[in-house]
Inverse folding.
């Protein structure tokens, strides 16, 4: 039989990587491109992509020393990519700005890894059925390193583990804030083999959780194993909209399953409150939504 080369069919440096077969997309990382490129570079089957972060505190304290910096040889030896530190720093500065200590460096490196993987998986899923698979690099680390893994060498979950767990749930909301400068679009992506009905509320809130805009739907049909755009909201239609103070929160349910998602309209460094940003992502990953009800909110 004829042999067909795959994984990848074409690498990220070829235009065909997004149109033919299995794609390893490393324009984000090797190519130093921003995370938003994941939307544009969605292939038929995405079998490699990812971004590094610093290991967890327990592993770092066990196998290396402070400061967590390239200048510290005992730390730097745990980075096996020749430009890894520079690439991580580039995204940290883009998303979070400057940092002053090791704790911030660890948090920001893991946070940008989370945001990058979240953006990629959501883009792949909402492009279904054009894209029919998404496999990120990688699940676990074989040694105590600065790396791409979801599980540290110690077996502990890095924050990106929870990102992948949420982004690959059977049904998700996928949010696109970067394809248009004038609007945001929201999708429901389902991998369930039966059709379902969703109810949800989409809200634009400011840093004090005052409502700028609310849109509620109590019954939205979603086809089996499919993707549906459920909202396209122009910023001009949001009362007193300010991208530096506002964020999007969407929550909904189907068959007693609760789902939610968030989006900011600027990088965290440009948002009015880093504390609010952290609160929102914490609510997304660990918040208790068992009492969710679809209720009108008074502005």
């Amino acid at each position: 039989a004829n042999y067909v080369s795959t994984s990848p069919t074409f690498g990220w440096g070829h235009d065909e990587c997004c149109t033919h077969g299995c794609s390893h997309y490393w324009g984000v990382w090797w190519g130093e491109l921003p995370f938003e490129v994941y939307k544009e570079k969605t292939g038929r089957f995405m079998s490699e992509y990812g971004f590094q972060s610093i290991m967890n505190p327990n592993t770092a304290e066990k196998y290396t020393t402070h400061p967590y910096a390239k200048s510290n040889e005992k730390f730097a030896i745990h980075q096996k990519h020749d430009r890894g530190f520079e690439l991580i720093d580039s995204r940290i500065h883009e998303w979070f700005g400057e940092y002053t200590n090791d704790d911030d460096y660890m948090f920001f490196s893991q946070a940008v890894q989370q945001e990058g993987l979240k953006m990629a998986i959501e883009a792949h899923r909402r492009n279904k059925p054009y894209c029919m698979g998404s496999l990120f690099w990688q699940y676990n680390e074989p040694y105590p390193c600065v790396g791409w893994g979801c599980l540290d060498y110690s077996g502990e979950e890095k924050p990106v583990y929870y990102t992948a767990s949420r982004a690959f749930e059977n049904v998700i909301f996928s949010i696109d804030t970067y394809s248009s400068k004038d609007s945001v679009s929201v999708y429901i992506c389902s991998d369930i083999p039966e059709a379902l009905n969703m109810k949800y509320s989409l809200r634009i809130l400011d840093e004090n959780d005052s409502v700028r805009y609310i849109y509620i739907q109590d019954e939205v049909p979603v086809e089996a194993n499919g993707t549906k755009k459920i909202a396209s909201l122009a910023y001009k239609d949001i009362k007193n909209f300010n991208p530096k103070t506002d964020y999007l929160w969407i929550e909904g349910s189907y068959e007693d399953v609760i789902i939610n998602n968030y989006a900011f309209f600027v990088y965290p460094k440009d948002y009015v409150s880093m504390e609010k940003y952290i609160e929102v992502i914490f609510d997304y990953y660990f918040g208790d939504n068992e009492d969710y009800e679809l209720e009108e909110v008074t502005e």
About this structure: The chain is about 25% helix and 25% strand. The first strand starts at residue 10 and ends at 11. Helices lie at 37-40, 57-63, 73-76, 84-95, 102-126, 159-167, 274-286.
